[in-house]
Amino acid sequence: MEKLLLLMSHSTATILCFVMSWFLQMGLHEGAHAYVADFLGDPTAERAGLKTFDPFRHIRWNDLSSLLFSVVFPILTAVQGYVPMGMAWVPVNPASFRNPERDHALVSAAGPVSNLLLAAVCLLLHHILPLPADPTSLAALPHLFLQTLYLTSIVYGFFNLIPVPPLDGSRVVYWLLPRPGKDFLDDIAPYGFLILIGLFWFGSGSSLFGRAITAVMRIW
Q1: Residue 211 has what pLDDT?
Q2: What span, in angstroms and rounded, lies between the C-alpha atoms of 60 and 100?
Q3: Phi and psi (nearest 5°) for 9?
Q4: Range of the domain at 19
Q5: Pick from 52, 66, 81, 143: CA 20 to 30 A from residue 133's CA?
C-alpha cells in the first residue's frame, strides 16, 4: 500500500484526489481560524460569512490574488505532480480579543492544528479500511484519497508553522518572544514572502521540508 501513490503518481485519479484534498483541508484550516477567533471574541470572520468549513466561501472570486493563491496555484502544482500548495486567509481583528497577543496566537495555531488532526484521522482510517490486492484498481481510490489528503494536510500544516510572516507560525512565536524578538518579526513582516522564496528556492528550506515529509510518510 505504501507504493500506491508512486504507482498512480501521474494518473488523473491522483491529480483529482490532490485537488479535492487541497480544497477540503483548506476549508478546514480557514474555518478553524474563524471559529476560534469568534470563540475568543472577534466576530470579524463570522460577519464576513467566513465562519464555515466550506472552502469555496474562503475564496474571494472577484479578487485576482485570492483566485491565484487559493485556486490556480494549488491546481497547477497538483497537475505538475507535486503536493498542491497555495494560500487562503480569514480577516482577524486582534483589537477584539481580551488578550490580543495570546488570542491571536491561538487563532493562528488553530489552522495548522486542524491540519494535523485531519492527517491523524486519515492515518487511522487508512489502517482501519481493508486494503485492496491491486493498488491500481478502483477499490484503491478511497486509500488514494486518504493518502493525498494526509500528505496535503501535513504539508500545509507544517508549512504554516514556519515562523516567518505572514504564516501562522510567526504569530505563535510572536506571542512567546521577548520584545526584541517581536520587533524583529515586525521589521521583517513586509519582506515575508521574499524571505520564504529565498528559503525554498535558493536556500535549504525545500530540502529540509522534503526530509520532513519523507519522515511522516514512513508511518503511512
Answers
A1: 83
A2: 27
A3: -65, -25
A4: 4-217
A5: 81
- Sequence-separated (6 or more) residues with CB below 8 Å from residue 12: none
pLDDT for 5 beyond 70: no
Find out whether 36 and 106 touch, Cβ atoms under 8 Å: yes
- In single-letter form, the type of residue at position 73 comes to F
- For residue 24, give the C-alpha cell: 477540503
Closest residue by Cα to residue 4 from 187, 156, 118, 143:
143
The residue-averaged pLDDT of 108-112 equals: 98
Q: Work out the burial of residue 16: count CB atoms within 10 Å of its CB; fewer than 13 is exposed, 13-18 middle, 19 or more buried.
A: middle
What counts of helices (H) and strands (E) characterise the chain? 11, 0
Helix 141-160 / helix 12-39 crossing angle, nearest 10 deg = 50
Residue at grid coordinates 519523507: 214
Distance between CA atoms of residues 81 and 137, nearest Å: 20
Q: Please give the model's pTM, rounded to 2 decimal places.
A: 0.91
User: Cα 143 from chain centroid?
Assistant: 20
**pLDDT tens, position by position, 48-80:** 999 999 999 999 999 999 999 999 999 999 999
3-class DSSP state of 36: helix
3-class secondary structure, 164: coil
pLDDT (0 to 100) of residue 10: 53
What confidence tens digit (pLDDT) does each residue in 147-176 have? 999 999 999 999 999 999 999 999 999 999
- Do 86 and 22 form a contact (C-beta atoms < 8 A)? yes
Evaluate whether 111 touches 168 at the Cβ level (below 8 Å): yes
Name the domain count of the chain. Answer: 1
